[in-house]
Amino acid sequence: MAEISLEEAERCNYNRQNQLKAFDETKSGVKGLVDSGLSKVPKIFINQQLKLERNNIQKQEPLTSINGGIPIIDLTRLDEDPDLRRGIVETVGEACEKWGFFQVINHGIPVTTLDAMIDGIRGFHEQENETKKEYYCRDYTRKVNYNSNFDLYWAETTNWRDTLTCVMAPRQPLPQELPIICRDILIEYSNEVMKLGQTLLGLMSEALGLKRGYMEEIGCGEGLFMVGHYYPPCPEPELTLGTSSHTDSGFFTVLLQDQIGGLQVLHQNQWLDVDFIHGALVLNLGDMMQLISNDKFKSVHHRVLTNKRGPRISIASFFRTHLPPENASRLYGPIKELVSEENPPLFRETTIKDFVSSYYSKALDSSTLQYLRL
Ligand code: OGA
Ligand code: NI
Q1: Atom 2 (ligand 1) nearest CA
Q2: Hey, how many other C-beta atoms are within 10 angstroms of the C-beta on 357?
Q3: Residues in the ligand 1 pocket, defined by CB under 6 Å
Q4: Ligand 2 centroid distance, CA of 253 (Å)
Q5: CATH architecture label of 50-127+154-372
Q6: CA-CA distance, 218 to 286, in Å (whole number)?
Q7: pTM above the 0.85 mark?
Q8: Domain boundaries defined on the chain
Q9: What pLDDT, on a 0 to 100 scale, did the predictor assign at position 371?
Q10: Of ligand 1's atoms, which has the minimum distance to the CA of residue 316?
Q11: For the segment 342-352, what is each residue's pLDDT rounded down to a tens digit?
């Protein structure tokens, strides 16, 4: 193989930086590119690894298995029947240990609210460009931001995705800080998700053999960081990803997706589709949960494929405080009740602030948790 010179490498890199900057300065994201009628994926988005993977797969086996068996958990009458609750706790525990991913149905959030939330995020991304551009920003100390690829300047490849970000808890933005087009539904949906979060933390605490209020008391349900993704249709889906493979950083994530599909989870070294179920919410655990549960609960890699159909809309609600000084000095490590002589702590303690800053200072697909492993 011919070697490339350092000069050439620098030139390529230089071009990439220039192209990223030019893309960023349009303030119109991937949607802007698609609207301009492009028929090929620009180079900055091309993911070589995906190309290789797809080539190999065509020769060997299908890319995914349909309905990969990700657990579906019914929360009906959870608080009315203790026997039923015990059963649900057990299923949740098993899903958290073996999968790190599950879907919940009959969770108490009306389907009309879920549908309206998807419509609200679609509305934000599809509104008049000039209005939307006012939110375009990379200052993450602001509670409300819209941009394409939060890691644009340090990720290896750019993802086919635009995102609206809102930090909704512990202190909600003032209503007027939220985009008018989705203001009411953002507030309504996030209030519902906060309540569901408490329920889920109760179930997860019990599944670890702790009292119901344990994880809530240590602040796992305090912060809510919401992102409304828009994945425009992609002319060459085999060349680029909507979201690169990653684990989430917080305690857990509640994900609402529309019917387009594309979300996949890495289970036993195989990418499985997370099917769309109308009215369901997808739940996945994050790195902080794996840390406090001392590796019992798993934070699992997942990614989003692109599609010629679309756009695809999804809303991820991360349970995690986001901005210092909130929760800045509280230390999190493996929960004391879960460690013993036979079961020593596997991670160092960390503050959310340090954890979040190391999460954002690396590529999306590398692991923050490994740095804390003892
Ligand atoms: C995320 C994420 C999945 C999706 O935002 O962390 O994994 O379906 N999103 O958009
Ligand atoms: Ni994620």
Answers
A1: 316
A2: 12
A3: 227, 229, 243, 248, 255, 257, 263, 302, 304, 314, 316
A4: 8
A5: Sandwich (2.60)
A6: 16
A7: yes
A8: 50-127+154-372
A9: 83
A10: 5
A11: 999 999 999 88
